[in-house]
Design brief:
This protein has 283 residues and is α/β, with parallel strands linked by helices. The chain is built from 9 helices and 12 strands. Helix 1 crosses helix 9 and helix 3 runs parallel beside helix 4.
Length: 283
C-alpha cells in the first residue's frame, strides 16, 4: 500500500520536519500528540512551531520533539524551510489563508497545486485532486495535476493508474450545459495526456468514482475544485475515510497541507509523508 511504502522510506530518511500549530490549546494538544507519535516511530526529527506564549507543562518532552514559539509562525516556518533548517514543512493547524499567502510569496507562484493522499473506508489508498475550491478549472490545469501526480507516484516506486472524473455519464450529454462541459473536458484531458505520453494508464470514469476505487486507481482527478473539496470532506468527515495530508506539487520544496480540524492520525500521516518526500532517495 502507498502509505506503508512511504513509512518505510521515512524511517530511513533522517529528515527534520517542522509542523505548524494554531494558537488554540486544542490545536497544540493534537499537534504535539501527533509529533510525539511520529518521533517514537523514528520517522523524523520534529519541531512544533506556533505563536505559543505559555506551553503547558505536560508537553516538555524535548527528547522526542522540540517546541518553538514565533509571533509569525506562517512566515517563520517557511523561512526555516528555505534556509534548509528543516527538510520539509507540515501546515498542521496554521490558518489556511495566511499560510497559503506566505507559500505563494516565498516561492513566487501565483497558484498552488495540492494532491491529497486519501484512504477509502475499505482501505484503498489513492492520491486525489483537486482539493482547493479554486483549482483545476481548465483542461491545462487538469493536465498539470495529472503530470505532477504521475511524477509523484513514480518517485515512490508505484505504477500510476489514473482516473479522470466528470459531472455525468456520456449518456447524460444534452441534459445540462455545465454537465456537458465537464464530460467534454474530461475526455479531452485524457486524450491530451495520452498524446503527451504522460501516462497511457488513464481512463475516463465519467461520474463513476466508485468504479475508479473498485478498479484500484491510485490517482483520481475530480471535475473541479468545488466537487473535489466536497468529495474530500464527505470521505473524511462522513464516510470513515482517512487523509494523510496533501503535498504541494508545483514548488521546489516539500510542504504538506492538512486540515486545521484534522485528527491526530492525519497529522501523523502528514509528518510521515513529509519525511518520505523530503528524502533525496526519491528526488
Amino acid at each position: 500500500m502507498i502509505f506503508e511504502k512511504l513509512s518505510e522510506i521515512a524511517k530511513n530518511s533522517k529528515s527534520t520536519i517542522a509542523i505548524g500549530v494554531g494558537d488554540q490549546e486544542e490545536y497544540l494538544h493534537r499537534t504535539v500528540q501527533a509529533a510525539q507519535k511520529a518521533a517514537q516511530r523514528g520517522v523524523a526529527k520534529i519541531i512544533v512551531l506556533g505563536n505559543i506564549e505559555k506551553i503547558p507543562k505536560k508537553y516538555p518532552k524535548k527528547e522526542t520533539i522540540q517546541i518553538q514559539s514565533s509571533l509569525t509562525p506562517e512566515e517563520t516556518i517557511l523561512k526555516m524551510l528555505s534556509s534548509n533548517e528543516v527538510d520539509a514543512v507540515v501546515r498542521g493547524s496554521l490558518p489556511a489563508t495566511s499560510f497559503l499567502k506566505n507559500v505563494k510569496a516565498q516561492f513566487n507562484v501565483k497558484n498552488l497545486r495540492r494532491i491529497a493522499l486519501l484512504e477509502s473506508a475499505n482501505g484503498h489508498q489513492f492520491f486525489f485532486a483537486p482539493v482547493g475550491i479554486d483549482e483545476a478549472r481548465t483542461i491545462p490545469e487538469k493536465i498539470n495535476f495529472v503530470q505532477e501526480g504521475v511524477s509523484l507516484i513514480q518517485k515512490i516506486g508505484i505504477t500510476p493508474k489514473v482516473a479522470i472524473l466528470s459531472g455525468g455519464r456520456a449518456g447524460d450529454i444534452g441534459r445540462d450545459p455545465i454537465v456537458d462541459q465537464t464530460i467534454k473536458e474530461a475526455e479531452e484531458a485524457v486524450q491530451e495526456i495520452k498524446k503527451r505520453n504522460i501516462t497511457q494508464n488513464i481512463e475516463n470514469y465519467q461520474i463513476l468514482i466508485e468504479d475508479a476505487i473498485k478498479n484500484q486507481a491510485n490517482l483520481i482527478l475530480a471535475p473541479d475544485g468545488i466537487s473535489g473539496n466536497l468529495i474530500y470532506r464527505t470521505l473524511i468527515h462522513l464516510g470513515k475515510g482517512k487523509s494523510y495530508g496533501a503535498p504541494y506539487t508545483n514548488i521546489p520544496k516539500t510542504i504538506i497541507d492538512t486540515s486545521r480540524v484534522g485528527p491526530i492520525n492525519e497529522y501523523l500521516g502528514a509528518i510521515i509523508l513529509a519525511s518520505a518526500l523530503a528524502t533525496k532517495k526519491i528526488k
